[in-house]
Write a structure and sequence with these properties.
Layout lengths: L30 E3 L3 E3 L10 H15 L20 H10 L4 H12 L6 H21 L9 H13 L3 H20 L26 H14 L2 H13 L3 H6 L5 E4 L2 E7 L5 E5 L2 H14 L17 H14 L10 H14 L4 H8 L4 H5 L6 H4 L2 H17 L1
Antiparallel strand pairs: 1-2, 3-4, 4-5
Helix pairs in contact: 2-3, 2-4, 4-6, 7-8, 8-10
Length: 396
Amino acid sequence: MTLAPAPSPADDEPAQAQPVPAPVPSALAPLAISGVIVLDRPHHLDTDADAAEEAAETQLQALLGQHTAPIALPAKGSPPPAADAYALAKLLREVQAPERALAATAGWLSSERRSSAATQRNYIRDVSWWLWWIQARGLHVGDVPTVESDLYAAAMRATGLAANTRRARLSAAKSWYTYLRRAGVAATNPFDGMEQPRRPASTTRYVSGEQLEDMLAHAVLHESARTQAILAVLFGTACRVSSLLGVQLEQLTHQGRFRVLRLPVKGGRTHTVKVSSYIGELLDGYLAERGSAPGAIFLSRTGIGLQAGYIRELVQRIAAAAGVPDPGGLSIHGIRHSVATALLDSGEDLAVVQALLGHASPETTQVYAHPDTLNLSPADKIDQRLAAAVERRTRI
């Protein structure tokens, strides 16, 4: 990864910092940072505390900065200030970052966790928004006050960005500063110890463990060997559709005494999952028809790879045939979600489910744990009492 400036058309210029109005020349003007935090002195100070209040405000302005007008991020949906390495290098130079910062940023983007081009693009876009903030606030990259990270987060909330988007941008900036400190470019990491936005509850449609069993039973009784094998792998490994479609025949192998699938996952890595006896039996039934030609395990009748849209329609069709309500609302990710939720509901340890899903953090897996509030709800008791009461009264 090389960060170097390159000529670009005028219409490729990154988003510019919005001009900041001159400070309002009034001691009583509110100090508004990020458009949402407003700190003001009392409008009527008629005691000897005037001097102390004025001194406190002076200290506060020194802490938060000299701007007295709100600083708002560009509207939600605006293109990022930098979308590639060249634009990021230009942005770093615009904020007067030293050349060592560019070299460190190149090293950070080239490190193991950011080795894929797609991941690098995401990190570049996320960090570029923080650089936009630095530019708008007139800060120096290597010495940013801790409070600025929270003001930046507040600005993102005010813009209406989703919690996951805010988490991604804050996480990218924190990771970048960790590397800058390691390279001796930044004195501190303003994102250390910062409170992250809460991860929102998942709204993914999922089904119960019993409904998954009904779907597989229907497939075994009425569907082709390939359909049986597809559902068996989806249900048995909780894999993503990209892993299902990308896994190659040679990645069905053995590890010690266990039969395993080495599923391809993000970043060019593989995630090894165990293939147990019944799932293996259904998979072998399909492979007997498919043959031993190298390539993707799951192929069409003409020998080409399947598409995600086909798998989604297959899952929804089987769900409808098995009597699952609202089958059209069930996605492939919903199957992964369903498997994880069924395991957690049955008392499986969170760390075990985390390992199956390949999550780096247990917090990500926790999203799949749904409190059994519907099963424990008193709604049925209320319903029965109301029905009985109406029946008694209508008999009179």
